[in-house]
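re: ur question from yesterday

yeah so i grabbed the chain u mentioned. its 218 aa long if i counted rite. heres the sequnce exactly as i have it in my notes:
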Amino acid sequence: MKLMGPIFCIFMNSYKYGSNDSSSMYGFLLGIHYDCIFFAQGVNDQFYNQEIMKYRGELAATVLTPLSIGAWILLYSLTSPMNSNTGFLFYYPLYSKFEYQALYTTGTWQWVYMIVWVFKEHSNQKFNEAFYDLMVGSSMWAYITHYVFIVLSANYIVRTMNLTYIPALLSNILFSEIMILITYAMINKIKSLMPKKEKSENKKVTELKINKFNPEAQ
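ran it thru and got these structure tokens back, copy pasting raw so excuse formatting
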């Protein structure tokens, strides 16, 4: 079941002709199709989530754990085609040759599965309430706005100051993170000033809906 996403991405690669035309909507729409495959695999995984977590926990207690680290590094090297036959930077996958595309999308799934497994095993709890609300609450806002702040940093800081690669990289990361947190805090402040509905009203509405579909509860 875990191979469905990688296999369908490889099939999708056969429809990507690797154009360098950054003005075309083709690469943008194709990227949405890849996102849908990732989303569909996540929905599919929820049907057997408890079973797979139990199986992962059993494997983590065996010798496969240290061996899997070496295997992961090997697969990472195999799924990194590097700088050859590249297409437009912001069109996924980055390569124009089918074989490189297949390796690249497979490497993406390798990263996704590793991150999901590690965070479910070790980070699936609230270590700190304030930190949890900040990181979880701002994650979607960061996903939506991060590119705007990267562009602002690149145009008004990096290019203006003629920064080299490492200072430019740090500038983009720090500026984007700071602006994301500041704007997110502003949104929360505005939200806190808005009038809130009483909980009792919401509870009454919920009870009415329950009674409507469950006559025995009346």
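noticed a couple things. Residues 4-122 form one domain. also The first helix runs from residue 4 to 13.
anyway ttyl
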